[in-house]
Amino acid sequence: MFDNGMSEWVVVLTVALLVLGPQRALAITRFAGVMLGKAKAALADVQAQVEKELPQEELKEIKENVVALRRSNVKRKVQEVLALEEKQA
Predict the structure, then answer these.
(1) C-alpha–C-alpha distance, residues 70 and 74, integer Å
(2) CA 87 to centroid of chain Cα atoms
(3) Strands (E), the chain
(4) Beta-carbon neighbour count of residue 51 at 10 Å?
(5) Would you state the pLDDT for residue 34?
(6) Do the Cβ atoms of 17 and 25 come closer than 8 Å?
């Protein structure tokens, strides 16, 4: 999510510990962890919904392509029959 390594987080937590003190730094760290967990859960839920709906949209697109092909084939067949009838007449 963030492009930070472990060493950057250690520096941030150390500075927070020095500035805020041990009590408040732990409470804020715990709160941040809970919020990060909720954000990850929400992101996973959205991703699952998108993955669930994506195949349906792909199937709909495939269905539309098949219907279009059928229509074009029917038009072509009708034109061929009409052309044959004109040649025979």
Answers:
(1) 6
(2) 55
(3) none
(4) 9
(5) 94
(6) yes
In angstroms, the CA 28 to CA 37 distance is 14
Angle between helices 6-20 and 22-88 (to 10 degrees): 140
Contacts of 16 (CB under 8 A, 6+ apart): 25, 28, 29
pTM exceeds 0.70 for this model = no
Give the CA angle between residues 52, 58, 60 to the nearest 5°: 105
What is the identity of the amino acid at 50?
Answer: V
Helix (H) or strand (E) holding 17: helix 6-20
Spell out the per-residue pLDDT of the chain, length 89, in tens.
456 788 888 888 888 888 888 888 888 888 988 999 999 999 999 988 877 877 777 778 888 888 888 888 888 888 888 888 788 76
Segments making up each domain of the chain, as ranges: 6-88
